[in-house]
Specification:
This protein is α+β, with helices and mostly antiparallel strands. It contains 12 helices and 19 strands. Helix 9 packs across helix 10.
Length: 501
């Protein structure tokens, strides 16, 4: 009996070894764990020496990137840290400028080697030419169709798409309603992507500055957010903000944060003063904010003015105001005494730094890691003590989802994409009360009537379906209205509050 048991165990071990791929003659000696590069090289050399399949340079490149990403994700996951990540930036002979961009003007995600468009920059080359959910599947080079699926990877795809101002490229684009591509010519243009700008509100006593992100200066290329903000503010202080009873609206909505240098120059000689230093009084008893890195040594950041500004400041924030935007909002409220309006902020109480890792095949890979926590108002952290915000509910076009075409929609269909169209039609056709459409994604008779009414304004004859062309009309109107300050109901309500206070 004992011999039989041993025989069965031996048979099982052989079977398991076969499926696991173990062959004793190929087991290598164990090596001590060294640096990441040492281990990667050991594994790669083992594959090159013993692996049945060929390993080429593209395989090595992809494996190395995956290994970097896996290590970073492992550490971040173990600490429940969603902000630490591997970031990649295409290298260019010309440094990029945060205030403008030369190119097509799209946000994208990769699907295999193909490019799915997620959004379009207003005023860019792609505006009213390409649309969200379009799929770029190839490009024409010297009269030859190059399908992205036949290329080696994302880097090669981006290489074909890279271009200079005035270059025209012929793209092969599939719309969501078609499995065949059409040719689309795009001429690369320069369009504004300002980190900070002003808009004339048409009010004698109210000025407005919008900060979309906090960008550091780039020597010889970009002044950076802090200096551009200073120049805009000085102009407004000589015009709209000159005199008594004036108010500056500082808009930090949808600002994800950015560079500390734009907030504060940390006393570095020759660096331009940050926005905190430009707006707040230097009070050594109460720092505007503090930061604590791993060392535990508290870093204090103060305002830079001798006296407060002679005008009031009202700050607009929302649920997408995060990181450096929250730092500035907290400093203005709790050190400057200025009120915040809108919606509660994101609540990101930590800050990040970056380490350059490697440049590989035209792409720079960097580690963005959480470096420490920041605090306001004598030790409060925004992640567990949210900023106090006077609520103003956003309504109108800025409160609805972006309409994106997925499929042709008609009566009695149910689709998650229909909800955004129904929201848009309610807004655009001013449907209220009993005329208001349901927004649950069911295409009923009232939705069909509204689609017909909307398309009748665009076409010689109205349609009762939402086709790709109808969706494009809606998206174009959506982008136009999103840029119209008079349709920003949160901003308009704050203006009314200022005028009646």
């Amino acid at each position: 009996m004992v011999e039989r048991k041993l025989g069965i165990l031996f048979f099982i071990s052989v079977v398991l070894a076969f499926f696991a791929g173990f062959f004793s003659s190929r087991i290598l000696p164990e090596v001590p764990v060294g640096s990441g590069d040492d281990m990667f090289n050991l594994i790669t050399e083992s594959f090159e020496r013993y692996y049945y399949y060929d390993i080429d340079e593209i395989d090595k490149h992809d494996a190395f990137i995956d290994s970097m990403r896996a290590v970073i994700q492992s550490y971040a996951k173990s600490n429940q840290d969603p902000y630490t990540r591997l970031i990649s930036t295409p290298l260019s002979a010309t440094p990029s400028d945060n205030e403008s961009f030369v190119g097509i003007g799209i946000n994208l995600i990769f699907e295999g080697n193909n490019i799915r468009i997620t959004n379009i920059y207003y005023g860019s080359a792609a505006h009213r030419v390409l649309y969200p959910n379009d799929l770029i599947v190839g490009i024409v080079v010297a009269g030859e169709d190059i399908l992205f699926d036949n290329l080696l990877g994302e880097t090669e795809v981006l290489g074909y798409l890279s271009g200079e101002l005035g270059d025209t490229k012929r793209l092969m684009v599939e719309s969501p309603e078609s499995t065949t591509f059409s040719y689309v010519d795009i001429t690369y243009s320069e369009f504004a992507t300002p980190s900070v700008y002003t808009v004339d509100l048409g009010e004698n006593d109210i000025a407005y500055i919008k900060i979309t992100q906090f960008a550091a200066p780039i020597n010889g290329v970009s002044l950076g957010t802090a200096q551009i903000f200073s120049e805009i503010l000085k102009t407004l202080e000589l015009t709209t903000l000159a005199g008594q009873n004036k108010t500056l609206i500082l808009d930090l909505r949808d600002n994800p944060g950015g560079s500390l240098a734009a907030l504060h120059n940390q006393g570095i000689q020759g660096d331009f003063p940050g926005i905190v230093q430009q707006l707040l009084v230097r009070n050594l008893d109460n720092p505007a904010f503090t930061m604590i890195p791993k060392s535990g040594k508290v870093q204090y950041f103060y305002g830079g003015l001798i006296a407060p500004k002679p005008y009031d400041i009202k700050v607009l924030v929302n649920e997408n105001s995060a990181s450096a935007a929250e730092v500035l909002a907290a400093a203005l409220k709790y050190e400057g005494g200025y009120e915040l309006y809108g919606a509660p902020t994101f609540g990101k109480g930590v800050y990040q730094n970056q380490v350059r890792l490697k440049d590989i095949r035209g792409v720079r890979y960097s580690l963005a890691y959480t470096e420490g926590e920041w605090f306001y108002d004598d030790g409060k952290n925004v992640s567990n003590t949210p900023l106090t915000v006077t609520p103003i509910t956003q309504t109108g076009v800025k409160a609805i989802d972006m309409p994106v075409f997925v499929e042709t929609l008609s009566k009695d269909m149910v689709s998650y994409s229909l909800s955004a169209y129904q929201q848009f039609l309610n807004y655009r056709l001013t449907l209220t009360g009993e005329n208001r459409l349901r927004t649950d994604g069911y295409f009923d008779q009232k939705t069909e009537d509204a689609v017909f009414a909307y398309t009748s304004l665009k076409l010689s004859a109205g349609e009762n379906q939402i086709k790709n062309q109808t969706s494009r009309f809606m998206y174009d109107d959506y982008l136009d209205d999103m840029r119209n300050k008079d349709l920003d109901m949160q901003l308009q309500e704050l203006i009314a509050i200022i005028k009646t206070s």
